[in-house]
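User: Here's a structure from my thesis project, written as structure tokens. My advisor, Dr. K., wants to see whether a designed sequence matches the one we expressed. Can you design one independently, without my sequence as a hint?
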């Protein structure tokens, strides 16, 4: 029983430290203040502002309750363990095992304290150098992220997809929907390198291919950005695809070019041109917002003398299928020999290692 008591005391100390770092007490007080504000007679006069406050109350209370509930379970288990009753040993062992798993997961989520880490994410994949192999590699990455999303309870919305001439894809864009999608996927932003025996080379020689992954938060309805219509070039075209009843026969797909920045956004998955245009505008606002956010971060980093941006050509991760099997993240040195498992969506270890290194200041970019 002494071992269990020691484990539970260590758990309690760890959770107390995390709750202090996340200012759970302060968030509880803020939720109470906002609830008091929501009780004012004129609160709903501005329905949009009121709705945002109600959403913030719900978010704060959910986070506070989650951490307080975990702390309560640890305290209850510790009190039972200190009774030193042998009949409780099996029950306590199971509870400690369950708590240990939950604490590890919430410890990782505690690292996701950025302003948009809890939001949905928009992911784009672009084939890079390597010709047909690169386009095939881009499609392999698409499959990898979809598998990861399915395994971790996220939903996927494919927004736009451009097929390759011979195989694979030139590019694709998707929204990953679920709590902390952006926070976890930030580890994937950058250039991914594949080394393998090419199935597209008649001599079956070893080839290297690259694909680039971009990411930004999908914060629909939360972005206050004004866009001048004169700065937009809007084209419509027929949505592509493998055929079937859902492929539109009219020009429903929309391409929006923001002339001042050169940003191009395409959407083809909605049923009507109006819906595609509306979704494309949401994505354009998100990209402009992210561009401004990164500009501010870069200015801050220059003052600190840090390099936080992953540049094209500097791969963040290598996937080697020949002459040996290895996936290695070059920022954290985390590596896995089971390449197939990674390509099937086993990414949580890389994500966790990146988040820990980022918090410790050890990630190279």
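Assistant: Designed independently from the structure alone:
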């Amino acid at each position: 029983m002494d071992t269990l008591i020691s484990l539970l005391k260590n758990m309690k100390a760890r959770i107390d430290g995390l709750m202090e770092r996340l200012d759970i007490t302060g968030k509880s007080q803020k939720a109470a203040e906002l609830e008091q504000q929501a009780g004012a007679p004129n609160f709903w006069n501005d329905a949009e502002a009121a709705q945002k406050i109600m959403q913030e109350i719900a978010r704060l209370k959910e986070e506070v309750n989650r951490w307080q509930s975990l702390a309560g379970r640890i305290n209850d288990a510790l009190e039972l363990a200190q009774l030193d009753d042998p009949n409780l040993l099996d029950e306590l062992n199971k509870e400690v095992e369950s708590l240990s798993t939950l604490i590890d997961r919430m410890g990782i989520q505690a690292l996701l304290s950025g302003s948009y880490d809890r939001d949905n994410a928009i992911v784009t994949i672009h084939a890079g150098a390597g010709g047909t192999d690169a386009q095939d590699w881009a499609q392999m990455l698409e499959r990898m992220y979809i598998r990861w999303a399915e395994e971790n309870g996220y939903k996927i919305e494919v927004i736009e997809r451009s097929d390759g001439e011979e195989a694979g894809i030139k590019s694709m864009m998707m929204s990953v929907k679920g709590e902390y999608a952006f926070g976890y996927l930030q580890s994937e932003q950058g250039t991914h390198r594949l080394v393998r025996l090419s199935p597209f080379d008649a001599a079956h020689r070893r080839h290297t291919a690259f694909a680039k992954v971009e990411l930004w938060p999908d914060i629909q309805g939360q972005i206050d950005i004004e866009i001048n219509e004169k700065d937009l070039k809007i084209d419509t075209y027929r949505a592509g695809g493998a055929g079937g009843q859902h492929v539109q026969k009219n020009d429903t797909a929309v391409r929006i070019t923001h002339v001042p920045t050169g940003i191009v956004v395409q959407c083809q998955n909605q049923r009507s041109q109006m819906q595609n245009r509306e979704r494309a505008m949401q994505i354009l606002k998100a990209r402009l917002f992210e561009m401004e956010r990164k500009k501010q971060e870069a200015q801050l980093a220059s003052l600190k003398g840090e390099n936080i941006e992953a540049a094209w050509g500097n791969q963040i991760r290598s996937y080697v299928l020949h002459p040996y099997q290895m996936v290695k993240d070059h920022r954290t040195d985390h590596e896995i020999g089971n390449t197939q498992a990674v390509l099937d969506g086993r990414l949580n270890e890389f994500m966790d290692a990146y988040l820990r290194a980022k918090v410790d200041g050890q990630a190279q970019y």
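When you compare it with your expressed construct, this may help: The chain has three domains: 2-110, 121-218+316-360, 229-304.
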